[in-house]
Amino acid sequence: xxxxxxxxxxxxxxxxxxxxxxxxxRIMDCVGCDKCRLWGxxxxxGMGTALKILFSDI
Length: 58
What we know:
elongated, glycoprotein, FAD binding, redox-active center
């Protein structure tokens, strides 16, 4: 698994993933086209949700 090993390192990796997804979501706020912004945010949130489900047992 990606987040196995030393627990403190695993927590750092999870937090880094979370920060990257939040950053992508903030970047999507700058997209001028409302339709493109909506679909981009929807896809990003979908990927984030999928990762939460995959790594929920950690």
